[in-house]
Amino acid sequence: MIKRLLIILLLNLSLALAHAEDGYRLWLRFDPIEAGLRTRYTQQIKGIHFAGNSAVQQTAKTELLQGLQGMLGKAVGETKNMAEGVLVVGSPQSSELVASLQLPQLKTLGKEGFVLTTTTRQGRRLTVIAANDDAGVLYGVFHFLRLLQTGQDIDKLDLVSAPRLQRRVLNHWDNLDRTVERGYAGFSIWDWHRLPGYLDPRYKDYARANASIGINGTVLTNVNANAMILTPMYLEKVRALADVFRPYGIRVYLTARFSAPVEIGGLKTADPLDPQVQQWWKDKTKEVYQYVPDFGGFLVKANSEGQPGPQNYGRNHADGANMLADAVAPFGGIVMWRAFVYSNETPEDRVKQAYTDFKPLDGKFRPNVLVQVKNGPLDFQPREPFHPLFGAMPQTPLMMEYQLTQEYLGQATHLVYEAPLFKEIQNADTWAKGKGSTVAKVMDGSLEGHTLTGIAGVANIGNDRNWTGHLFGQANWYAFGRLAWDHTLTSSGIATEWIGQTFSTKPAVLATVRNIMLQSHEAMVNYMTPLGLAHIMGYGHHYGPAPWWDKAPRQDWLPVYFHKADNMGLGFNRTATGSNALEQYHPEVRRQWENPATCDERYLLWFHHVGWKQPLRSGRNLWEELCFKYNEGVDSLHGMQSQWAGLQKEIDPDRFAHVQMLLGVQEQEATWWRDACLLYFQTFSKMPIPARYPQPAKTLDYYKSLRFPYAPGN
Ligand code: BDP
Questions:
Q1: In the chain, what are the domains?
Q2: Residue 10 has pLDDT above 60, yes or no
Q3: Dihedral sign for Cα atoms in the order 229, 233, 236, 241
């Protein structure tokens, strides 16, 4: 008896060890599902009819068989017949059976979309995953698996889904030495040194994860580019990666260093109007396509933060972009030209410059150029108003750039679910063509009828075992993919999907984790930069608070430049009496924001310098409101901690502890943010922190003395 018990115990132990929960499997866990559901699904999926042979369809098939086996606990067999309960998968081209079904939904579906439907043929009930192309089949399969993993009913499927954006791309800010600019999850997953001979199994897992959420492109290299990536030695390595990704429907893109013709081409100039330079890029591009026949194109950061660009030669951004666009056009490639630019001379207001540079160039870009615009006009702050270029360049397709790596959002230590931030931007109304001209409609091309569309997410992925440093960073990767596919999905819906696949589908777990996620962004805004404050982080590494920092090579890298605190008040006056950045928005948007009394308080100090004693909507004056907000942020953190603590019995010990410890660090850092910022701003407001709030534990001098020379990602 005792011996038997012991054996059972040991068996369980070894099972537990084999499944140490380190987060590596992301949302693709495919563990056995609950018995009742399993029985139901097993009756509904009795066999699989899969007729596609292409590499992408083979991937879909493998994923489907593996996923089902994992979740149902036994293999589902393949069948050639159209029997009762068969799951039919394919496209009309690849599968005669799918073709014979003549699904009307396929007519309007377009590329990459899929149909999931339940139908009856000759009295037999079939479940169908159909698409017009291979990629659609792959995405349909992953969506079907997602339905099962989250315990959805598959009895009467009637679902049509197609991506709203074409180029759904991750941007890796990864360097050739494997460091990652603004990376907080270890080193780059690209092991350049050992490529192309050694293919880390992770490359495949990376591709799977992306394909499962519809990401179809990846820029392998940092926007602060290294020309060496375009040399044969590195192109061999790029080819090896592209070969791994192709069966998952993922294309490779590279960053192009504008001065490459000089640096690796031996030319005297990189002037985009010089015929020799143009020829060099044409030849180079041709060479790239010899290595990677489906190469996606180039991403370029030019004339920004010291990067070379067309302006070095007295040319403009369109001249630069068009030269590259002409080089990739014969091969079907595109150019993603970034609008994150600001001049090397200190300007009157940094947030105005992208608009000033790009707006006059509207209509001057080749049709295969996307101008890639960050969500806000400054730089991935906890909160910014939408970028004024959205809606201002009707003749140019604009590509949204979000940052998944949390450079300014607590890095990989803070639990911050970014979907609400993305949605806030996408739902903003540019008024470009009257009410309802949302940023989403600019982005998906529907506002102006653009056919080339795209979105970029600066990746938060590194070689940490759990990929993103913080387990919840995975949710941002996931949400990015899902929103790139369909920007009408809700933050809450995406969180529910992710939690269901990552932790559990139990209603209580879903509700609690979702609650934590949905409040996390606002909490972080409150304890870091409430009321429209921005860029008051530590200098250079952007870690922790440093609103006092006033030493840098240029003004507009300084917290004091951005918050403009003085004895009168706080905030950057961007109205007509100040920098007038507001003038870059549509008059209707301007009207909403130009009066401090009616301005959305989330953006108040972004647009206005407000007096310390000025009463706000709550009835509190600015100083009191600041104290309130900072404390509200820290309080939210306490709430998130206790909600997580309540999940101890529901979540495996490894992942539970990981999140719990990080929430502890986040709570300390939130407190540090609150205390340091309030003490500093108090030197101007000259008012006490109301006694109902905790008083700072240390002095302002102490907070000012902190230094972090080795903070990551810098
Ligand atoms: C800023 C980062 C910097 C990037 C830059 C960019 O601090 O490292 O190079 O953005 O987007 O947020 O080019």
A1: 23-161 (3.30.379.10), 167-489 (3.20.20.80), 526-572+609-705 (3.90.1330.10)
A2: no
A3: negative
